[in-house]
Amino acid sequence: MALSSDAKIRTARRFRKDRAGTTAVEFGILAVPFMLTLMGVFEVGYTFFMMSALDYAANKSARAVMTGAVSTAGMSASTFRTSVVCPKLPANFSCADIFVNVSLVPAGTNPTGYYSYVNTGKSALIVPALNATANKFCPGSGGQYVVVQILYPVSYFTMLFAGQSPTIYNGRQVNVLMSTATFKAEPYGNGAAYANC
């Protein structure tokens, strides 16, 4: 049965005024960008929180090296990590995943010695290995220039933000956070002698 032209016009007007389902369609269109934005905000906020906590721990731990508390006690890298660094970090950090690199600035006219910590393009610091046996632990003695680097591999909430992260740790892509403190140690005495320093 064919509709008359008046019926067709009334049907078209009714269809045009019908708003049922509009909200659901609009939400469906906006839900994905909204959720991606929300996850991005959480990811960035969490990373800033973790970096701030790592900076705090690095500064406080560097103070222990600078005053000679580490060297005069003859601490090992493992003891330094577990008894000095880890207690200064919040509970969401895993102490087993903290990596420490403590080294002396090479001799030379300052700041020449510091260039050994910078990449060839002089655009960023060289990131030490996520391997405790490959990193140095040389807290030095009084009056020496020391660099303390604390690293922590952070997993991404979602792999959408991992992108082309070149760092793989325990089989997953990670964002490596690093905090560095550089200082001249106070003139203390009776520091332990460390091998390969």
Verbal overview:
The protein has 197 residues and is an alpha+beta fold. It has helices at 5-17, 22-66, 69-73, 77-85, and strands spanning 99-104, 145-155, 168-169, 172-184. The chain has a four-stranded antiparallel sheet. Strand 3 and strand 4 (172-184) form a beta hairpin. The protein is rod-shaped. Keywords: Membrane, Transmembrane, Transmembrane helix. This is TadE/TadG family type IV pilus assembly protein. It holds the Pfam family TadE. The chain crosses the membrane at residues 20-42.
Write a concise synopsis of the structure shown:
The chain is of the alpha+beta class and 197 residues long. The protein is built from four helices and four strands; from the N terminus they run H-H-H-H-E-E-E-E.
Outline the fold blueprint:
Layout: H1 5-17, H2 22-66, H3 69-73, H4 77-85, E1 99-104, E2 145-155, E3 168-169, E4 172-184
Antiparallel strand pairs: 1-2, 2-4, 3-4
Organism: Methylobacterium komagatae
InterPro entries: TadE-like_dom
Domain TadE-like: 21-63
SS strand fraction:
15-25%
Can you give the mean pLDDT? 83
So what's the overall shape? rod-shaped
Number of strands: 4
Strand order of the largest sheet: 1-2-4-3
The radius of gyration over CA amounts to 28 Å
Termini gap: 96 Å
Contiguous helical run count = 4
Low-confidence stretches: none
Please write the string of helix (H) and strand (E) elements: HHHHEEEE
Q: Kindly state the percentage of residues in helix.
A: 25-40%
Tell me the major beta sheet: 4 strands, antiparallel
Q: How would you classify the helix and strand content by structural class?
A: alpha+beta
